[in-house]
Amino acid sequence: MQSGGFVIEQFVEAARDVSIDDAAKRLGLKFTGRRHEHPQPCPHCGGTDTFAFNTVKNKWNCRAGGAGGNDGIGMVAHCEGLDLHRRQALLEACSIVLDRPVPSEAGQEHAAEAIARHRRLEERRRLNEAQLAERAGRQIDYRKRERQKARSIYEAAARVGRFGRLVVDYLEARGCGRIGASQWLRCASELAYWHGSDQRGRPSKLHSGPAMVAPFINADLDAIGCHITWFDLARPPKFRPLLTDPATGEALPTKKMRGSKKGGLIPLFGDPSAARWVGGEGIENGAAFACWESWREDTFYFAAGDLGNLAGPADPASRFAHPTLKKPDAKGALRPLMIAGPMPRP
Ligand SMILES: [Zn+2]
C-alpha cells in the first residue's frame, strides 16, 4: 500500500510533465494562430492579445500580468488565479493540468468546488471548439466564393482572337507586337473596379472600363483564380487608367487578382505540353519577350503574377531592417520592420 504523501508526489510529478499544448487544451484556451504561437485575451487579466502560448517553444506569456514560463502548472495557475505558494492551490493547478481529481488522500478539495470548476472549463472548451469550427467553415466558404467569382469574371470575357481586339491593341501599345490569338487571354469590354464601400457598407464601384483577364491555373491546369488588368488606350505610356482612392487620394493598382494564385501561373500563349517554357513576372514583359523571339511554336509562354510566385521566397539571411518603419514585437516594444532581401533562398 502506497502512502498518501507518495501518491500526491507522483500526482504533482505527472502534472509537471504535461506540455503547454496539452495544458492549453485542458484549460480551454484558444488555438488562434496559424502555426505555433496563439495570442488571445488572458482568461485572468483580460485584454485582447495580452496572453499567448507557443506549443513548439513550450512557453506562455502574459503581458498584462507580467508573468510567463515554460510549464503547464504555472500557466494554469496564472489563468485560474491560483497562488502556487499555497499547497492546496498547487494541487488544484495539477488537477486541471492532468484533467483528473486530486487523489483522495489529500482529501481537502470540496467536491462542489471541483465540479463547478470542471463545468466552467468544459464550457470554455466547448465554446472554443465551436468558434474554431465556425471560423474554418467561413474560410472555406470565402475561398470557394472567390474562386467562383474569378471563374465567372473569366468566363464572361471574350476570347482574344476574332473578338477581344482591345487586348491585342493594348499589348501592341505596350510593345508586345501584334498577337494573333491567345487561347488563354480574354477581354472584358466593360469591367467594374470595386474599391471600398459606400455609406451603407456596400462595395462601391470606382471605375468601369476595358480589361485584360487571364486565368491562374494550377499544376493540374485547373483554373484557381484570375488576373485582371484594366487598361486605357488613351493614356500612354503604360496605357492604364488613373485610379485614385477617393478617401486618401493615393494611386490604386490597375491590376487585381481574384481567387487563389499560390503555386499557380498565368498561361499566355502556347500549350503547357510544350518542351520549352518561358516565363516572366508580369503578362506584359512575358508577352514582349515572346514577341521579341517571334512567338516560337515549340514554347509555352507564361507569367508568374508576382515575384514571390516566380522565384519562391527570399533567403532569410539577406533580409534587412527598414530604415524608418517600425512595428511592435510580442512584448509591445517597437522594432524596425524587416524587409525580404534581394537574394533568393537556395
Ligand atoms: Zn494574465
Radius of gyration: 29 Å
The tally of helices reads 8
Give the distinct bound molecules.
zinc ion
The chain-level mean pLDDT equals 85
Count of distinct structural domains: 3
Q: Summed up, what is this model?
A:
The chain is an alpha+beta fold and 346 residues long.
Description:
The protein is α+β, with helices and mostly antiparallel strands and 346 residues long. The protein is 32% helix and 28% strand. It folds into 3 domains: 4-109, Alpha-Beta Complex (DNA Primase, Chain A), CATH 3.90.580; 146-312, no CATH class; 313-346, no CATH class. The protein has a 5-stranded antiparallel β-sheet with strand order 5-6-7-8-9. The protein has a 4-stranded antiparallel β-sheet with strand order 1-2-3-4, covered by helices on one side. A 3-stranded mixed β-sheet has the order 10-12-11. The protein is elongated and about 90 Å long. The N and C termini lie far apart (63 Å). Bound molecules: zinc ion.
Element layout with pairings:
Elements: H1 4-16, H2 20-27, E1 37-42, E2 46-54, E3 59-62, E4 67-69, H3 72-80, H4 87-98, H5 111-156, E5 158-160, H6 165-173, E6 182-197, E7 203-217, E8 223-230, E9 255-259, E10 266-269, E11 276-280, H7 283-292, E12 299-303, H8 307-311, E13 320-328, E14 334-339
Parallel strand pairs: 11-12
Antiparallel strand pairs: 1-2, 2-3, 3-4, 5-6, 6-7, 7-8, 8-9, 10-12, 13-14
Helix pairs in contact: 1-4, 2-3, 3-4
State the main characteristics.
346 residues; alpha+beta; DNA Primase, Chain A; 3 domains; 5-stranded antiparallel sheet; 4-stranded antiparallel sheet; 8 helices; 32% helix; elongated; binds zinc ion
